[in-house]
Amino acid sequence: MNNHLALFNPDKWVDNYADALYAYTMARVNDMQLAEDIVQNTFLSAWKGRDTYKGQASEKNWLYAILKNKIVDHFRKQSTGSLTLDAGKEGQYFEDGHWTEAAAPKEWGQYTEQPVEKKEFYSVLEKCKQKLKDIQQAVFVMKYMEDAEAEDICKVLNITSSNYWVLIHRAKLQLRKCLEKNWIGIQ
Amino acid sequence: MPRKKLDRNTMKWYRAIWLSCEQATFLMSKKEEGKLVFKEKIQLRLHLRICDFCTRFQRQVRFFTRHAAQAHEHTGALLREEKKEEIRGMMRE
Lengths: 187, 93
Known about the structure:
Helices cover 59% and strands 2% of the residues of chain A. Chain A has helices spanning 13-29, 32-48, 59-78, 119-131, 134-145, 150-157, 161-184, and strands at residues 94-95, 98-99. In chain A, a hairpin with a 2-residue loop joins strand 1 and strand 2 (98-99). The N and C termini of chain A lie far apart (57 Å). Chains A and B meet through helix 1, helix 2, strand 2, helix 4 and helix 5 of A and helix 2, helix 4 and helix 5 of B.
């Protein structure tokens, strides 16, 4: 029971998981070449470590665990650790702490009440995410797509927690505005 | 700004703990991490009761952050066949 060893089949990995792992990675790193490298490294690591597989997790989950580590490694390497945040970036959104007229959130209507199956939402989200700075993307992806704790994100990116709060705040402000403009269509 | 007319004492009290929209949206992220102190919890709740913009902001941000993790299920991205073949080759060695 609960042992997946019998279903462990490295010969079929590429056929069974390559597309899914690649799509998962692309949604998180936004770069074809990089996503290909990460997927390739994942399969190679898994292949080399195949004897260590004990069957506690399903083959699929085991591969995803390796993949997720590679993605975090990428963010770790990408982060230079010498972060300087320009002051006052929030100035595009607030004036004396109040929403500016242009940045104040507009009503999105029924869009947010329906289940989102629309490809369009995801492709706009993707484009908006790409416009974020690398470090903001890293923070956003780790927090909301990889479900990491803020403390762990700070360790991986080698940033302080106050940097983290500023980055996540700005990422949300920018993404929300971008979605409003390009998905909802309010200029 | 408060919608209803408030008496003087209430106004005073409001001013003492009133957050700006910038502060309120900032605290929303801290809240997700369970990092708000008691005073901030009260301040944020009070701000959201009164401010339509920040209430919208919260709802909209929740919406897209909640859906972000499923993005890969909707893109239909496929790994190039040549790359797959390359990986298969490496795994045979």
